[in-house]
Design goal:
Elements: E1 4-5, E2 7-9, E3 12-14, E4 20-25, E5 32-38, H1 41-58, H2 63-79, H3 81-92, H4 96-116, E6 123-125, E7 132-140, E8 143-147, H5 155-166, E9 170-174, H6 180-192, E10 200-202, H7 207-216, E11 222-226, H8 229-241, E12 245-249, E13 254-258, H9 264-276, E14 286-292, H10 293-308, H11 328-344, E15 347-350, E16 369-372, E17 389-395, H12 398-406, E18 410-411, E19 413-417, H13 421-430, E20 435-438, E21 454-455, H14 465-472, E22 473-481, H15 494-498
Parallel strand pairs: 1-5, 8-9, 8-11, 9-10, 11-12, 13-14, 13-19, 14-17, 16-17, 19-20
Antiparallel strand pairs: 2-3, 4-5, 6-7, 7-22, 15-16, 18-21
Helix pairs in contact: 1-7, 2-4, 2-6, 3-4, 4-5, 9-10
Bound molecules: 2-aminohexanedioic acid.
Length: 500
């Protein structure tokens, strides 16, 4: 008997009005993970109504008290970390160790934002005039639309929901249709932690039916979206018509630079972890390796021998190093890119095929793949693949490496391996990405620093850290005049007032 998972609207677990359902299967073996209620615009309208009603009192709820609810939620996430991680692996495939990391990232964000309940700092400033007090404070927006992807089913929703809540907003949450169960678990925990009814509402279903209805709803003044570049552009167009605040977190084409003085063992480890972790399905995945020609051969050999030996399998098994990709469509799209790379003349050094041995036949497994002798203008070096594929691009200098890193439309993450601090800092100065690592791979962002990218990766906003507070609030500047008379800024003659 497979459970039916439902929407959460105004504090109740309810089926979608039209009574439809959809199913999610485990990408490792095809087992049914769950059946889910399938919503449409009518369900979104009910969720927005509930969120609007709840906003009236939630915005007045003292922020330290909101923080206490988040502390309780963080504790529940921690108590259930293992079962949440196992369920996540069943739902989207990432290996259990990484699923635990995903839940941990949600715990970290929840704790961080809980603490913000006692900060949420504004400013006080001197006034140009006597007997006048100036200050600013953050104000919430109202109902926030939260639309999230399947690759980080707990972490990314927490990046959006927790800052929205601590700043006094309410939420309508639409998770990816590949990972609805993790979303249900997160909302159950918030409810159990004492979040009042209607503050977070969950609507399950597809992007076209549910996501669009949220984005187009006139009573949702703010939308935070993480997903594909194509969908993000459509979201931006709709949001612009309605003058919404919008945060977009989209594609990446992240690169690791390996200079001639790098510790190659460390570089190889960093590349394997960031290229093949989560089967390459991270926005921050290292899908390019920009390597100095003098170490290209040695690095390629190391990557080929290690990637060739990586164990594919069900992510719940302790020995598995690479799980399946999320779906059959994703598998086909990754393979298509590999064919494009070969047709463009890149040298396939290892991998390059759908893995079908034994039990792998039941799931969507792709061999870890390394292309060598890739030119920076090839499609596999320019477009996001979102699978376990990386491309070695040889260069002759740091300057050329930086130009290659910057020569794509995206700007999320990059890294450099070098023993030379001067060259590392020159790379930091010149690389145009939102996130940069020295002597580490391209993944592993921590939640208290801003997360996001330049150029086509985003639209100028950042998630996480205090940057998230900036996105989910608007500033209000307050001037209190206690002089008892009309004082005019920019007009009154202050010098005359202070004359002896
Ligand atoms: C993503 O890929 O969308 O830095 C998020 C990292 C993780 C988050 C990735 N902490 O790779």
């Amino acid at each position: 008997m497979v459970d039916l998972f439902r929407n959460h609207v105004g504090g109740d677990w309810v089926e979608a009005k039209a009574g439809r359902t959809f199913e999610r299967r485990n990408p490792a073996n095809g087992d049914v993970v769950g059946t889910y209620t399938k919503s449409d615009g009518e369900d979104v309208a009910a969720a927005v109504e509930a969120a609007k009603t709840a906003y009236r009192s939630w915005r007045l709820y003292p922020a330290p008290r909101r923080g206490e609810i988040l502390y309780r939620a963080a504790q529940l996430l921690l108590d259930r970390k293992e079962s949440l991680a196992r369920e996540m692996t069943e739902e989207m495939g990432k290996v259990i160790q990484e699923a635990r990391g995903d839940v941990q990232e949600a715990i970290d964000m929840t704790l961080y934002m809980a603490g913000e309940g006692r900060r949420l700092y504004g400013q006080t400033t001197p006034s140009e005039l006597r007997d006048k007090f100036n200050m600013s404070q953050r104000r919430p927006f109202g109902v926030c639309g939260v639309v999230t992807p399947w690759n980080f089913p707990m972490a990314i929703p927490s990046w959006k929901i927790m800052p929205a809540l601590i700043t006094g907003n309410t939420v309508v949450f639409k998770p990816a249709s590949f990972t609805p169960r993790s979303a249900v678990r997160l909302v159950e925990i918030l409810e159990e932690a004492g979040l009042p009814a209607g503050v977070v509402n969950l609507v399950l279903g597809t992007g076209p039916e549910v996501g669009n209805a949220i984005i187009e709803h006139p009573d949702v003044p703010l939308v935070s979206f993480t997903g594909s570049t194509e969908t993000g552009h459509d979201v931006a167009v709709s949001a612009a018509h309605l003058n919404k605040r919008l945060s977009l977190e989209m594609g990446g084409k992240n690169a690791v630079i390996v200079l001639d003085d790098a510790d190659l063992d460390l570089a190889a480890e960093g590349i394997l972890w960031s290229a093949f972790g989560t089967s390459g399905q991270r926005c921050t995945a290292a899908s390019r390796v920009v390597v100095h020609r003098s170490v290209q051969r040695r690095l390629a050999e190391m990557l080929v021998s290690r990637a060739g030996g990586m164990r594919l399998g069900n992510g719940l098994e302790a020995t598995t190093e690479i799980g399946p990709v999320v779906s059959e469509g994703q598998l086909a799209s990754v393979h298509q890119y590999v064919e494009v790379g070969q047709a463009e003349g890149a040298r396939l050094a290892v991998g390059g095929g759908i893995a079908r041995e034994g039990e792998l036949e039941q799931g969507f497994f792709y061999q870890p793949t390394v292309f060598d002798d890739v030119r920076a203008d090839m499609r596999i070096a320019q477009e996001e693949i979102f699978g376990p594929v990386t491309a070695l691009i040889p260069v002759d200098s740091l300057e050329e490496a930086v130009a290659v890193v910057n020569g794509v439309k995206y700007g999320l993450s990059a890294s450099i391996f070098t023993a030379d601090i001067n060259r590392a800092f020159r790379a930091v100065r010149d690389i145009d990405t939102g996130i940069l690592y020295v002597n580490a791979g391209t993944t592993g962002a921590e939640i208290h620093l801003p997360f996001g990218g330049t150029k086509a990766t985003g639209n100028g906003h950042r998630e996480a850290g205090t940057a998230a507070l900036d996105f989910f609030t608007e500033w209000q500047s307050i001037y209190v005049d206690y002089s008892g008379k009309l004082q005019r800024a920019q007009i009154d003659d202050i010098d005359a007032q202070i004359a002896p």
